[in-house]
Amino acid sequence: MKLPETLLRILQLIFVTIMLGLCGGLLQQQVYGGTPTRLSYSMWALVLAALSLFYLIPSLFLPSIRSPLAVTVLDSVNFIFLLCAGIAMAASLGGRSCGDQSFLANNGIINGGGIHANRQKRCREANALTAFEWFAAAAFAGSGLTALYEMKKVGDTRRLQGRRPDMMSSRA
Asked: Which of 2, 130, 136, 150 could disulfide-link 15, Cβ–Cβ 3.0 to 4.6 Å?
């Protein structure tokens, strides 16, 4: 069993679970106005990551279903989509303080919770979602690099097996 990849998969599962809760809560609390596109995109990227973990985690323990190419592609796609979601959320939030009342009232992600919504709570949830998107993107990048290394190692092994000389033909 591959300990570094297993630890990264556990971290990914934890991060994706936390982010699904945060993003789902922000979407569910949206009272008026349309659903912010950045939240919808984040949820889409998270569902893709969760679905891909249904293959990636069992493939650690079942070598018969593991394809280094599929693992590398899934890790790369998840890395790209979660990185884009993190960038979009960070750009929307702008790194502003959750104590700035004018920012809370005018930001589409934070403001959508209605008149009686706790905007500071929504702001903190949105900031936490953004941070976890960055952490998850880094975890998928790490596991993608380990899968890329494994794919290269498998490819080198196959290439070497095709070049091995026959012991009988090497006698002079």
From this structure: 136
pLDDT score for 131: 97
* pTM, full prediction: 0.84
The alpha carbon of residue 50 and the mean position of all alpha carbons in its chain are separated, in whole angstroms, by 8
Write down the pLDDT at residue 164: 55
Would you state the structure tokens that stand for residue 115, as one six-digit string?
A: 């008149």
Low-confidence ranges of the chain (pLDDT < 50): 1
Nearest to 120 by CA among 128, 106, 110, 130: 110
